[in-house]
Amino acid sequence: MASIRRPALAAAALVAALTLTATACDPQDEAGGKPDSTADHSNSDLAKGLKERLRGLGVDLEKWKGGAWKDWDRDNWLREASDFINPIIDNLWDPERMHKAKDPANEVNPEALNEQGVTDPVPAPVTAKPVPTPYHENAAPVGKVFFDSPKGAMVCSATVVKDPKNPGKSNLVWTAGHCVHSGSDGGWYRNIAFVPSFNDTGVEPSQLSSTPREKIAPYGQWWADWASTSSQWISGGSNSGGEGAPYDFAVLHVQPENGGGKSLEETVGAALPVEFAAPAITELDTMGAWGYPAAPPYNGVKMHSCVDNPSRLSIKAGLPTMYRIGCTMTGGSSGGGWFAPQANGQPALVSNTSIGPASGNGWLAGPRLGSEAKAVYTAVSDKFAGN
Q1: What sign has the CA pseudo-torsion 35, 197, 26, 351?
Q2: What residues have CB less than 8 Å from 184, skipping those under 6 apart?
Q3: Neighbouring C-beta atoms of residue 370, cutoff 10 Å
Q4: How far apart are CA 307 and CA 293, in angstroms?
Q5: What is the pLDDT of residues 53-106, one digit of tens each?
Q6: Could you report the per-residue pLDDT of 131-160, keeping only the tens digit for each?
Q7: pTM
Q8: How many Cβ atoms sit within 10 Å of the Cβ of residue 297?
Q9: Whole-angstrom Cα distance, residue 346 to residue 273?
Q10: Which end is more exposed in the chain, N or C (fewer Cβ atoms within 10 Å of the end residue's Cβ)?
Q11: Which residues contact residue 104 at a Cβ distance below 8 angstroms, ignoring those fewer than 6 apart?
């Protein structure tokens, strides 16, 4: 006899579980791990190593910080997995520039999905709900990723995840591949920074410029000193998802813009485990997506969530089947974590927002994390083991 699903109860349990993980210290309390603004990151061993890597790639660090990063000539656009560079440029991401950042639309024409592998009927839209403020108490692992592309400043969503090689001291952030790399038609984006609990108290867009920076970025800004995505996304990803969509995930390793000794996990007080062996899509009762939708009717400054029963979406026969849920969140929520309860009742990250429909905003789809995703995650953890 088939089990009877209870999505309303499951949804409530998932939201409660995520809230319980958000036990971060008060961001204004220095004991909570607020980065030391007086620290000098320019003399760290990591920074020296970066300068050497930059020289090897023909990049002058001072010219880069002075504006050379704005050169998007294809010959200068680093593309390969080993070419990632992201020097910190102090105070680049001020509140006004963060607010002007646009969403990197990653949309697919529903007509292109007809009879492509295994696809369930389009789910009914689920209206995204605002996450209660302050965000550091209700969804501490969630934040926004800012980056520059040839089209200007862009924004995605992301999640703090645990680091198996640095338990309790993770500096890892999970997002979408299309939030860090352009895919088959380009290379690595630049000036990638993560802001956990962005706009913690949920002020309106008109108030951002007059709101103290510590309230917009209560735990500071964390710049990616490494990023990794799948080879499938690099070779086959596109702004319509493409064949890279089932592999549209990425892991960042970050460091605080102003230096400091505490890790991201210690600073925000939370990190989620990543589940690479989640049950089959048809066996999951509920799944929730969290993020900062930026395209209309949303404004990009407030966190929202959707919880629904997942269904199946196939981009192309022969490629892995993706998760799909009903959700009205729009661009800007890309990269935001999808969470499902574990056996112990606590949530784990099981996917991230990848694509949505080119017209309307009734559903979202994300990759099912398997061996490829685990390899990306493990490689970044190994690279920074003990750091």
Answers
A1: negative
A2: 234, 235, 236, 237, 238, 242, 244
A3: 14
A4: 15
A5: 888 888 889 999 999 999 998 887 999 999 999 999 999 999 889 988 988 866
A6: 999 999 999 999 999 999 999 999 999 999
A7: 0.90
A8: 9
A9: 9
A10: N
A11: 149, 154, 155, 156, 178, 179, 239, 331, 334
